[in-house]
Amino acid sequence: MISTDRSQSTRASGWRTRDIVITAVIGVAFGVVFWAWNNVWLAAVAAFPAVPWIADLLYGVWFMPAIVAMLIVRKPGAAFFAELVAAGLSMLMGTVWAADVLLSGALQGLGAELVFLAFGYRLFTFPVLAAAALAASVPAFIHDWIIWYPGVDPVVQLVRFVMMAVSAVVIAGGGSMLLERRLRETGVLQGFPD
Asked: Residue 164: which residues within 8 A CB-CB, separation 6 or more?
């Protein structure tokens, strides 16, 4: 039965205190992950100097807060908020990319957010999660090309994007779905939509 009570509909789509708290907690948890992952990334680049783009296969971890937060909270803005909190904490903990991580986080969160918006914040299947992760990778790729790799050959840039896209789908899309399922099995997500 479809409810015609507009106040009930507004309450259901509005942010609750626990939505804010859990999204912030996801952001903080991933901020710590980002801080550690930065070192993994740098080690991968150093380990493969002839093919530094191979590290882009690891990029998907940086898109995960947006996907995980939206999977759990399912509210407009959750992807953007979680990604920005994670990037901010990563910056405060220390990163070679300094304050630029805030811009990266904002762009990635916005990219993912646009896909969830396109589906009315109602569809959370793997194809939608993969599309959101891919959408996060597009502004990340453009940003990195302009800021960090402006002189790199376009063919290498294309390879970088393919690696980043694969990582987005597998790590951010698939990994976020698995993480959310495991958390749900523990019961810690009781009271959040299935």
From this structure: 56, 59, 60, 137, 140, 141
Provide the token pair at 80: 């953007």
Q: Is the pLDDT of residue 144 over 50?
A: yes
Q: Whole-angstrom Cα distance, residue 18 to residue 24?
A: 10
Q: Looking at the whole model, is its pTM more than 0.70? A: yes
Taking the C-alpha atoms of residue 40 and residue 28, their distance in angstroms, rounded to an integer, is 19
Q: Is 163 left (phi over 0), alpha (psi -120 to 50) or beta?
A: alpha
- Look up residue 81 and give its amino acid: F
DSSP string, 41-64: HHHHHHH-TT-GGGGGGGGGGGGH
d(CA 29, CA 188): 15
